[in-house]
Each structure stands twice: as structure tokens, then as C-alpha cells.
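Record 1 of the preview.
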Amino acid sequence: MKSKYNIILLLLSGLLAACTEESGPNIDDYPLNYPIEEIPVQSDIPVGIYLYNPTSALSNEAVWTRLTEPHDEAAGKVGPNIEPVLGQYSLGVDETGAQNLQTLFDWCKDARIDFMVTPGFKEHANALYPNNANFNDTAFVRLVSGKNVDYALDLGTMKYAVLMDLNTFCSGLSNNVLLEDAETRDYRYLDPEGVQRDTTLTREERLYSFFRRASDFFKDDTYFHLNGCPVLVLANPERLFTSDSKRVYDGIRATIKAHTGKDVYLIARQTQWTPPARFHYFFLSGGVDAVTMDNMCNIGAGYYERLYWLNQFINENIKYNREYIAANYGIDFMPSVSPSYNIYVNNGSYNSPIVAKDPGEFRKRCNVAKMNLGRTPLVFVESLNNWQFESAVEPANTYGTTYLDIIREQFKRDSK
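->
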């Protein structure tokens, strides 16, 4: 046994001796070890930014404590130790909420943000059109639009687009329970003559009615259009299980066209760090107009290796998605960029890597986005104020408007 052990030691010694500085691995040869170059802006690139309603998160004292407490890794405190300039603010359809929203708008106008993407717009399943959307969501969209007469806001040249949250609508759907086979729902309503009547809607009919309700906002002059078409961003589109996604998406488009006279521009928000082929039977075969990515700084529980050369990892991932989606489906791609991500702020978890704010790294991620623009240039920022995960460019006590300034400098030709 001892002789075998000695032989192994000799072999290892020979291998180590052979791996000289000249012949062994060199970090310079690592495929991801390349610089992210600064890309000059030749013309303005449209920028959309996700707006959250952080009221519940910021009013949660545990979340607020983790967001603002001094950073002390030895004590297990790994929050960012920052505080929004607005403090523990609320957004809502009241005077204080409207004033706070106007302050956010003013900051975004200074950064030359082109449009806001609203918080998720959800279905209200127990009512017929036009009451088939969550009441609070509808009221908040009206506030964001600047069309609420009680709290009219000044958007300047900025617009807004609705984020359709399909998560609630798709509850119960799966590869075993498709949209076409899901349960029907009975409704009772009063007709124009005041007569009580009953009707039944299939889940598919409800889907089209839900999109019809969202398209009511297209008539607003503050609604964002791309190539002349109103934009809807789809959250959780991978939840829409159907036997024929192309037929269903054609049905969505036809419903909106009949209701508004406009051709809608559909952008699916794909789950971050996922291969695009996974969504073949969903929005890719469905034929959305473009795909964007969810927060790429949310690098997943346990994937600590992605922290090294993170911007290069993001570049390779979205480059692959952009090229694959274009080559196989002819669908456009719109990159997203994020400043940071910290799941500890949300729930005190230590299982996911933390991507801390760093102006230099954020600039690199902006350049990664410019490296991966689609046929129709447009970039999404995740997000303005998602304080629940500290993924925000909203001004804070430690950095002011730094991240909004970077957005303007990176995506607008005349950034002054």
C-alpha cells in the first residue's frame, strides 16, 4: 500500500512540474475574461422602466430594517444600508401617494426615461367586462396615466405601458390542464334594460376579455406606442398553458384590434437565466413581437460562480437568447439592465448571491444592453423602485440620482 502511495505522489509531482507558468492554464485564456467596452450612443435609445408599488414592502418593518441597517457581515447583516430619499413612502390613489408618484416622475423625466411600465395589471375573475380587472390595479393605472382628474400628474413627454400579470389568471393551468380545457365560470348581470341575465364564459373567453379591458387604456395620449402600435408587456407568460399558443395569441390580437382598431405590440418578459427553447410551446410559438428578460441580477440560489465576471455571464446569456429567438422564430429581443439584487432584504435569506450596487458595474451592464439591442432598439430597466429586493435606481441617501444619471448618459446621445 505504501509503495502505491509513493507512486501516486511521484506522478502528481511530475504533473505539477509539467504545469509550468508557460505551459499551464492562464487566466487570460479564460473565455469570459474579456473587457466590457464603452459603446458610444449614436442615437437615442428608448428606455422603459418598471414601476413598483412599494407601499407594502416599505411599511414592513422587518424589510425596512434589513434595507437600512448598518452592513455587518460578521453579525449576518448583509443589507445595503441605504434609505430611499422619500423614506418609507406610499403610492396610492390619494393626495400623498400622488405627490410621491409625481416626485418619481420628475426624477425619471430628468433621466429622460421614455416610458413607465405599470405594476402588474391582474384579472378580477368574478366580474364581466369592464369590471374584470382588479379595481386597485385599474385605479393605479389611471393615476400613472395622468388621467385621474382628482390627482392629475405631469408626465411631460414620458408615457406609460401596462404590464399584464398572467400569474393570477393562469392559476390552475398546467400541462395537464390546458386553457382550452379549464373550467367555465357562470356570471349574473343586468342587461341595458335592467333585466337580470346569466351567462357563462370559458377560461379562453375570459383571457380575451381581460386583454380587451387592458386595451381600453390605449386611447390615452400618454400611452406608449412602438412603431405605431400600443405596447403590452406580459409577465409570467410561461404560465399560459395551451394546446395551440399561436391560435390563442392570434385571438388576443384579434380581440384588441376589434375593440380599439389598433394592432398591439406584445413583449413577453422571459424568466431570467433560462434557455429560450423551454418556452417553445408558449409565447415563442405564440408569436409575440419581442422578448425581454426579467432581472438578470437575480442570479439564482447557489449560483455563486456567476458573481465572477457577472457582466460577461449576462452578456453571453442574453446574446444567446437574442440570436436563438431571432433565428428560430423571427422574434425581436429587448435587453434588460439592473443595478442590483438582494434577496436578504426581502426575507432575510442567505441562499442567493447578493449583487450590490456599484456605479461602474451598472455602466458595464448598460453597455452589455447596448451590445445586444434588437432590430427595434429598446432597453428595459429593472427597476425604478423595487425596494423589496433592493433592485432600484430611485434616489437614495447614499448615492442621490447617480443611477438615473447613468441611464441618461448611457442611452441618450445628448445626455446633458
